Amino acid sequence: MYFHVQELINEIVADEPDPAAANALQEGLGGQFGEMRTMMQYLFQSFNFRGDGLQYKDLIHAVAVEEISHVELIATTIARLLDGSPRYQGKADAVPGAGGSTPLNMALTNGNIHHFLVGAQGALPVDSAGNPWSGSYVYNSGNLVLDLLYNLMLEATGRLQKCRIYEMSANKTLRATVAYLIVRDEVHQKVYAKALESLGVNWAKTLPVPNVDTSKYPEVKALLDKGIDRVQYTFRLDGSRLGEIFRGDSPFNDGTTVETQDKPATGFPMPQAPERAEEFAPGLTPELKELVKEAAKLAH
User: How far apart are CA 78 and CA 197, in angstroms?
Assistant: First the structure.
């Protein structure tokens, strides 16, 4: 069973709305190498795990649970990039539709029209081209070594794509989230590499991982200085055997060590999305709003 803390795993930095940046970030959410893929792939590998090597099940499951938080983070970031964009490139207090234009006119020329037509200025389970996320992306062979090799490749490719997304926009909201995911993807590469090494697999020859230096990105450098590129969390309340594998020297042979911890040191506030009259969201009448307030009073 799962327990949830109503916090984000990383802070969402405020900046102007940017629907084009939001659409680019959709690739990191619903693309073939995005966060929905990693979440579902690792969950199903852990659900279907066979045999006595439970330390490997714990390892895969720990990353899977973290990926749930990444889906939450990236979807919330997309929503923040979209929210308020009908007044995009206008004044902060501008009213959508002022000056004679229709309230959602900008949706015809910025980003993905479905973000406004279907998603009410929110994230969608699609890639940057609007293709729906597919369960056929999930790889679960049942063979532990094959699954670990595939997972390592998946993390390396996902990290590479996030570097490309980072290069597409200077928007601070996008870059803060993407930088965090770049660093955590690198950690997950190390997790799967350590697991493969423990099984006697010379992964570096089998699957050379591209050396993509991301320390030049200021947001990434700040996270590296905090050392979160060397820690994997168990996200378990009842103990985990992940630490039997993820410890000691880094598999990247860079002179650093890796370690296992129960959870991140802190979480970050979950932003509350405002009402959007132009989307009829949430669409509560004054009478219904009053009922909501009264129900809240009764609950306390």
Answer: 37
Is 74 domain-assigned? yes
Q: Does the residue 59 lie in any domain?
A: yes
Give domain status of residue 206, yes or no: yes
- Does residue 6 fall inside a structural domain? no
CA distance 135 to 139: 9
Q: pTM, whole model, 2 decimals? A: 0.92
Which pLDDT belongs to residue 265?
Answer: 86
Give strand ranges (E) for the chain: 231-233, 248-249, 257-261
Residue for token pair 């697991």: 195
* Residues 34-90: tens digit of each pLDDT: 999 999 999 999 999 999 999 999 999 999 999 999 999 999 999 999 998 876 555
Q: Which domain holds residue 202?
A: 19-273
Identify whether the C-beta of residue 152 lies closer than 8 Å to the C-beta of residue 193: yes
Please give the tally of structural domains in the chain: 1
Residue 244: per-residue pLDDT: 98
How many Å apart are CA 186 and CA 120, to the nearest integer? Answer: 33
Q: What is the CATH number of the domain that holds 126?
A: 1.20.1260.10
| Among 236, 253, 151, residue whose Cα is nearest residue 195 | 151
Residue found under tokens 């959410």: 29
The one-letter amino acid at 107: A
